[in-house]
Structures are given as structure tokens and as C-alpha cells.
Amino acid sequence: MNSSPSPSPATSTSGTPTSRRCTTSTPTTTGTYHPKTNGGRGFYVDRNAMTSLAARRGALMAGGPAQVAEKILDLHAELGVDRFLGQVDLGGMPQQMVRDSIQRFGDIVAPAVHHVLTREQEHQPA
């Protein structure tokens, strides 16, 4: 005879019981769990979403060197971010475009961000 207690139902963060397994799918959640794919390579993003993501306050680092540097500096100012990890599209862009993008980041964006942050540190009281 097993004397261990029977498992209790799972609870949500509010402490209310929840089912252990979702057995149904509603139309409102289907897109959340299974977004439309773009031919098996990532997710489909329409023009409005892309415009929003690429805007100054958006999450996507896209644009010329000045726009990308500006977005990185915004992240630093608002969130204290002091590291940046970027991903360059290696599958959808021609190889030379990828090389040029990486080159511009290293030659223009990173030094510009470093210059601004160094100047800010110099002007802060000790």
C-alpha cells in the first residue's frame, strides 16, 4: 500500500486549480501557439508589423548605421543595456550584403556607440 498523498491538481499562479493538460484548442489561441510560418523559415511578418518592429522604438535593429546606433543607445539609456548581440540574416540575403552589413556594424555602428558612451562617462561626476 502506498502511503504517499495523491497528486494535487495543478494550480495557476493565483492558486486556483487548473487542468493538467489542454485538450481543446480555441480559435483565439491557435495563432498564439502556432503562428503562420513563412515557408518553413521563420514566421510570416506583414508590412505593418515589419514597419512597427523596425521603427525607433521597435525590437528589430534595421536601418542605416545611424538608426541602428541610435536604437542601441536608446536601449542603453532606458534599460542600462551594456551588451549587444546581433544576428545577421545568412539565408535570405546575398553573401556580399551580409559581409557589408557586418563590416558597417564593426566600422561605423560599434565605434559610434562606444564614442557616445565614453563621452557620457567622462561627463558624469566621480
Give keywords.
126 residues, mainly alpha, globular
Tally of contiguous helical segments: 4
Biggest sheet details? none
Give the number of domains. Answer: 2
User: In terms of structural class, how would the helical and strand content be classed?
Assistant: mainly alpha
- Indicate the radius of gyration in whole angstroms: 23 Å
Percent in helix: 40-55%
Q: Roughly how many Å apart are the termini? A: 70 Å
- On the 0 to 100 scale, the average pLDDT is 76
Work out the number of β strands. 0
Approximate strand percentage = under 5%
Overall geometric form: globular
Contiguous runs where pLDDT drops below 50 for at least 5 residues: 4-31
Q: How do the helices and strands follow one another from N- to C-terminus?
A: HHHH
How do the helices and strands line up, and which of them pair or pack?
Elements: H1 27-33, H2 47-54, H3 65-79, H4 95-122
Helix pairs in contact: 3-4
Characterise the protein shown here:
By secondary structure, the protein is mainly α. The chain has two domains: 28-58, no CATH class; 61-126, no CATH class. Helix content is 46%, strand content 0%. It is built from four helices and no strands. The protein has helices at 27-33, 47-54, 65-79, 95-122. Helix 3 crosses helix 4 (95-122). The radius of gyration is 23 Å and the shape is globular. The protein starts with 26 loop residues before the first helix and ends with a helix.
